[in-house]
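For this section, I looked closely at the sequence of one protein beside the tokens encoding its backbone, which the following lines show:
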Amino acid sequence: MSIVILLLIAIIVLFGVRNIRMQFITRPVFSFFKKVLPPLSSTEKEAMEAGDVWWEGELFRGKPNWNTLHGFGKPTLTAEEQDFIDNQVQTALTMIDDFDIVHNRKDLPPELWQYFKEEGFFALIIPKKYGGREFSAYANSTIVAKIATRSVSAAVTVMVPNSLGPGELLTHYGTQEQKERWLPSLAVGKDIPCFALTGPEAGSDAGAIPDVGIVCRREFNGEDTLGLSLTWNKRYITLAPVATVLGLAFQMRDPDGLLGDVKNLGITCALIPTDHEGVEIGRRHNPLMMAFMNGTTSGKDVFIPLDWIIGGPQFAGKGWRMLVECLSAGRGISLPALATASGHVATKTTTAYSYVRQQFGMPIGNFEGVQEAMARIIANTYQLEAARRLTTQGIDLKVKPSVVTAIAKYHMTELGRDVLEDAMDIQSGKGIQLGPKNYLGHAFMANPISITVEGANILTRSLMIFGQGATRCHPYVLAEMEAAGMEDETSALDRFDSLLLGHMGYAIGNALRSFGSALTGSRFASAPVSGPTQQYYRDMTRISSSLAIMTDLSMLIMGGDLKRKEMISARMGDVLSQLYLASATLKLFEDNGRQQDDLPAVHYAMTERLHLAAKALEDAIRNFPSKIAGVLLRVLIFPLGNHFNAPSDKNAVEVCKGMLKPGPARNRITFLCGEFDGDTSGIAEVENAFLAKYAAKDVYKKLKKAQRSGHLKSKLPMLELFDVALDKDIITEAEHKQLVEANKLRLAAINVNDFDKL
């Protein structure tokens, strides 16, 4: 007992007496920290400093405040936004024939281009005082998604001027003169913008841009002018073939010191009319046969004045930060909107098709093999809609959540791929045969474009999500890095000492919380709600604590090598991502008023998110470079094993059962599929067949009952079965007519297009 008391006294003295702590703990740890500190390139540092930490910060720190999540409010549309969707967007949908756009025109029809321009579809983010609509991120996302349910090519055409590009950059950073010159003409479509960032040697590593602008003096408009000689070669630039104004990112250099002592100023953005001397707009690309405009641009020794730099000369060299902050908005709005649209279409059409398509005498939706894939479609669509709303809500709160939008871009485009693959599997021949009736093919073909652009998904997952999140979201590491970089060592040590004490308490708290929750099944963790979703909050707190302690141990052991351990950092990024997606799911359930008919999809989505988060933790532990640390992590995180299982078969059946009929739950996760009077699209065709057959369900039951009793043969062709049932007075004339009409619609829905020649 006396030994224990002496040990406690020693610990108290060691940590409680400042001079002793500084000598034996702070100085050695500080020295070690500076050695293992990961070196940051200038672009990494700028990316780290750009944007804001939002809800992901709570998830990363081990003890999320769930009331903060629910306090964000519910995303809503203003009356003006709703009116635009109900009128202009609906009108645009009636003008879209995607098969004609993709296979015949290779472009939008002129009348649709003109309508988009006149009605402000290219001005969704431009302030009203410049003639724009100044809509919210949520409205922007909803508009793009609704258009995408009918045409990816049309949706991309609308989304690009409203995401990363001149409009957004000018709104945030432009000089007053630049705003007044360009924004009104962009708002009415008089000017069409594109933004040239990617080149043959610079893709995901946009900081490696080889395109260059050299500061020099030349004659411009008859006057001696200080400006830039630009040389560039860009590709994959959407809207470039039709653009009238080019946003350009390049490396700015001042070898002759005309601006000062700095020779390499860094990445800079400028705005150049495409009819300016020397600007070359090249030929079109063919992005997986989609019809949106995409191509190349180049220029050699093109002179522009310095005041064409976005933001003016004072923003020389600040382009990378500008791009990172604006990319975060684009990543969180445009591409997630396309993915969510895919989910809505896949759910609406697959549930309908599975009800009207029959094999072996019953709807294919009754087969468990089909239900397994269909449950994934439905739950993933619920997840996509939830993440779309939460992410755009963050942007509308005027934060710039760069980590959140990277999560949204990566995971939502991947989920979009998943729902389309499952929908294609179920609808099979209906899905693969292109034609006006087909509603899956073009989205399926276009999906890899979303996977590739605005940061390739592989690198987004392995480098960005955890790479930025670990430092940005951690409550101590970034401040400790700043302390390590201080020139005054005494001040640095004092700052580091106070941070270290807090960091140690933080780490111990997370370790105890993770271990205690694992032993008790998280039963004593707090939750903001009671009822069927309460345990999910508790489990997420446990996983958040586990991620926090694993992050601390990883940084301690691997230091700067952690960013090169891409597989491990990607898995830890997956944990953060799954927690974010799960948060969005729970919030949507609350925002919708805790609808009981949503619960099967919520249970499926939440079970899957927790399963994947726990699996990512387990895989990271199994591959941890230090086996001793790996054993310690396993004891703290999974002392009784990993019991976070994938969704059950019973849950999958429940998800499908609620969606193979019309109802509010189905409407809530398919509402983006634009519907209008006179709609003759494939989506409308299969939906009408579904509604007609469901309306006749009681009559079909009569036929089944008569077949089981032997009054009707079991394998008669449909129309003959109806006629025999009428002759035997099993059904009435009205019921016979209803069955014939429903069957006519059913056959039209399951049929596909054919052509004389291709």
